[in-house]
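Changelog-adjacent note: as of this version, every example in the card shows the full chain rather than a window. The one below runs 392 residues end to end.
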Amino acid sequence: MSKIVDQAIATAEKSDKAFCKFISANDAGSTGAHQSGYYIPKNAVSLLFDTPGIKGQNKEKFVTIRWQNEFETSSRFIYYGVGTRNEYRITRFGRGFPFLSEDNVGDLLILCHIEGDHYEGYVLTSDEDTEAFLAALNIDINETNKLISKDNTASVEDRLLKCFLMFVQSLGKQFPPTVLMASTARQCYNTSFGITASTVRGNPDKNLLYWLEAEFELFKTIENEVYSDQIKEPFKNVEQLVIFANTILNRRKSRAGKSLEYHLEEVFRHFNLRFNTQVITEGNKKPDFIFPDADSYHNKAFDDNKLVFLASKTTCKDRWRQIINEADRIPTKHLFTLQQGISKNQLEEMYAHDICLVVPKPYLTSFPVEYRSKIQTLESFVNYTITTQTYK
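Full-length structure tokens:
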């Protein structure tokens, strides 16, 4: 973890307003749009202006942003309201600004209001730094692209809350296994909102994201309950505080990756797909998913074209290379990720290694236009895998 992450975390925690998002191709101006600059969603307008923009009028404000605690830019917050446009952006970073190029697509942008017209900005480029920041601020990867909540208590729908609290009370201030937490979150969500197998099959991408969000809210509720006694008393020394903080952060990071796998498993079960997880392949590698199963993979007589590989990683800007040699019999490696946006250069490199990206359908627009037809959604991946399996 880099020093920049520590600074970004400290700044976000002390600021009165903080925002984070994954830099998109649209931000970098690589989608063919006539305007580049960081796009800011309307839910974060209070970070930029005291009052929202008025349709039919443009509105601007000049500010100073200190980047990576190293250099400053005199930048512009602008609302485009004239004509067909209705959007907020941050522009004018000066010549040579290093964080708005094609290679920054998929990096995590963090912007914090300090005071008056002064802001601090950070851009995190590695998976490790991104995950460390999200864990420290208790943000799920699906909760980016909006203001960072300063309220660390669970904010769930009332119909979920009762189900969550009943589960939490049964734990006796102990963390449950991630697989149990994931299944409980799904059960509570499905029961509360009337989600059926047919509903999941109708839109697996959206329901996967709903499950992940529900589990994250459940996790925060459990976290607050488990640690409630420990945080009431001061720590005896700094070493104890550091150990305690690291325990929390490590648990948050490890949970996110495993829960994604468990929810993907549930989607595949709803479609009656045959699969095995953590199959041992060449070199004692263990791919996340092999379709249809381990026996078929190790059966040399089985048709290679009916074997499917899927890895799952919450972020993959750095870690996609880890899967290249995980299953020699399957040349095309599918990789499911919650990463929102990856640069053209990295996508070219991934596809040169025969890695096919799979993302939730709502995230497709965060990728360069020319690659969207190559990227699969969860639904299209499932449909493809169904064609490789024979059902009696």
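Structural remarks: DSSP finds eleven helices and 14 strands in the chain.
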